[in-house]
Amino acid sequence: MIRAIVTDIEGTTTDIRFVHNILFPYARERLADFIAQYQDEKSVNEALVELRAEIAQPNASTEQLIETLLRFMDEDKKSTSLKTLQGIIWREGYVKGDFTGHLYEDVLPTFLNWKTQNIDLYVYSSGSVDAQKLLFGYSDEGNLTPLFTGYFDTRVGAKREEQSYRNIADNIGIPANELLFLSDIYHELDAAKAAGWHTIQLIRDDADTISTHHQVHLFDEIKLEDIA
Length: 228
Fold this sequence. Notes:
The protein has helices spanning 16-38, 42-54, 62-75, 80-96, 107-116, 129-137, 162-172, 186-194, and strands at residues 4-7, 120-124, 148-152, 179-183, 198-202, 215-216. By secondary structure, the protein is α/β, with parallel strands linked by helices.
């Protein structure tokens, strides 16, 4: 029996184009001025200290850090410090109403149905926990954060590493064979399955012919009662 469901965001609950065409450019355009203005504030300073450690350059200048962050953006690098800074910048956009967090129409009704079954919902994304809360807190459907029991980002481990899912299971306190992970990326699902989780792949377009995971196109096609 599935007792908790952990979902990815990008490509799973949310159109990847929202992230790449709206969120990423919004942060990129504001990054340099933002860091120059707020680098001494606690959350920003901590992220920059973490970035210096990540690139093994403890004395890197602000200009070098900005160049590094822009390069990380170009590479779509899953850098925790970059994701933290992006999340801080995105907060302004959400609060000002420049955009709302995109959700596929089939997501919320299914989440609500699962909650009526007393299933706990969690998020695991490469975006920071703060960014996750912003997307669901300022979503197209309103504030959905009360639906979630918890959130995980790359601080728990990379999404393609088996140990990350063991860490999440330990944190949740539920055996892996009672957990379900949802993602559009089969590499992530491979890691979760290796850790003993159940997995389902969300495919919004053509089927993934390489994947060995059960695939669905919509959230309401997920039948928990069919999961052994």
